[in-house]
């Protein structure tokens, strides 16, 4: 709001109209289209405060309340479009100050091939019979609009008043986008392409552009935004391309022709990370890696095993599938132990004697029993018969060689009564029984080692996750062979076995991307500088109406996509130009930050006016409203040429600083206000001297170096609307609820002279 009010307040004719109380004589409180005079009344009050020379800042409390009352969108403190605020304010002032108390009914006539001059004078005269105010005198011009029906060639000519010109920016309508194509064939690498697409197009246009390169139908493509190894967004074909930036990694996946029997599953890859906490407690977590997948699977009858094989096939380009006989999940030390167990079996085959008792009933030979006990995980227990020690769950942790040595040390000379190995001594077991016991223990040891790993035939297991891939929705998936319940909303993580990933996953192959020759093309879509004249030429260029905005042809009796052309017939004394930086349609919205170069003086628009009898059309810039930021938010400032000292100043909320004419042309310029050369200057010298004297008194009397005021003479002539600078004395209590009514932009301008239409 501050930006708009500063632009308006430095229009000398409009400001003096309110300061000299002329508005009071023309106030129309009974106009049903007006605001009961509240907009005009509160604006007049604000103008007096701003130009009284008594305040270093002004809080537009009453004015904002009045605006919010009749336009609720401006009642809060959220940012609103400045051009919309300007349009509302100009219309509100016009209706509150309309000199026509009773508007007559006027029947509009068709041009019927009459001369433009006759039709224009008729249109302007009819308009002035219902609309007559200081706003019309100053801001309103006349446009000629020509419509041609493509069917019957009917030509419709109308002349319409305008309060401001909204000029389109002639930017290139195409852009280049880099994408990664992921074929359905698992043996093929992803390929990077550079595509040329409509700047205001949709995802469907992007797929169509890629289809020409890859010879695949666009309806078999899914466009995604991949970020940090997950899908940041999966686009629909109707989504606009405008939100997609050059920094986004766009992956387009080929999928089979969709039907009710197929579902596309988003799949992430995860690996286990184990960290040790401060108390030596291991903490297990999962982190994403690699490129996510879009995998087509059967909607029904898809079991865990089927899903596993589908995934394994999809990643077969960079994952080596181990042989079924390869027991990769067994640690090397377990494999070594198996080799040593074979040596133990050979030793047992050569065992021809009966082992002597490890201990006797009378307690002898205890040392040998203790040595055997140390070589096993489970404690040795006394045999019920008091013969061979045994363990109910034997797990030998020592090597087989040590175990063999222990057994050999336990064996003494054969008893005189023993004639073969199958005969049991009075206090021992046979060789066959000893061999069987050790073989059973060895097999148990290996089986236990295997069971402690993941299922031996799987390189990974599946875990349902959310779209971020970090929180498990359900930490189990049915592996019993029952069909899985899968939908398009299901996200699944591949949780890799750490050994399997290390042995069979090739990161270098997985990250290999082929570069298409289109990537070598230079980007020809760079931002360019635009001249204001180019905007005017585009505004007056013939165009075809869109399918969403047809024209009703009175001759065909139906809506048609007619051609339309605007021409300038007459221009006002104060010309407001709105640069259409914000663009909208049903798919996208965007802001154009391209620099528009515009003259600060001697803007000659004569060549754009088709009225040969029009008077001078040379303009000087008097204010600019700027917008910084994007579609979601931003900040408004203003440049204004002081109506008294003719110097340029910069207004940024409560800060006012001196500026220069060269500084006002920036890419943030949004609304330009021009004044026609040659109109009388209504500035009163007496008021100017009084204001300048007040400024000096204020700056000196405060004893402060208020740079914004002393450098700009602006605290007296147009104090900043909003919060006061910290160094300024506050002349009224600061209301924080009304501070910072910024981020809206509006300017207004007025002159007492009537517009020249002849």
TrEMBL record:
It catalyses: Thiol-dependent hydrolysis of ester, thioester, amide, peptide and isopeptide bonds formed by the C-terminal Gly of ubiquitin (a 76-residue protein attached to proteins as an intracellular targeting signal). Gene3D superfamilies: Cysteine proteinases (3.90.70.10). PROSITE patterns: USP_2 (PS00973), USP_3 (PS50235). Residues 729-741 have a biased composition (Polar residues). The keyword Cytoplasm does not apply. It comes from the Eukaryota. Residues 340-432, 716-758 are annotated as: Disordered. Its EC number is 3.4.19.12. The lineage of its organism: Eukaryota, Metazoa, Spiralia, Lophotrochozoa, Mollusca. One of its GO terms (biological process) is proteolysis. Residues 391-427 have a biased composition (Low complexity). It comes from Octopus vulgaris (Common octopus). Pfam families: UCH, USP7_C2. SUPFAM superfamilies: Cysteine proteinases. Belongs to the peptidase C19 family. Keywords: Hydrolase, Protease, Thiol protease, Ubl conjugation pathway. Residues 1-677 form the USP domain. This is ubiquitinyl hydrolase 1. It is an enzyme of class 3 (hydrolase).
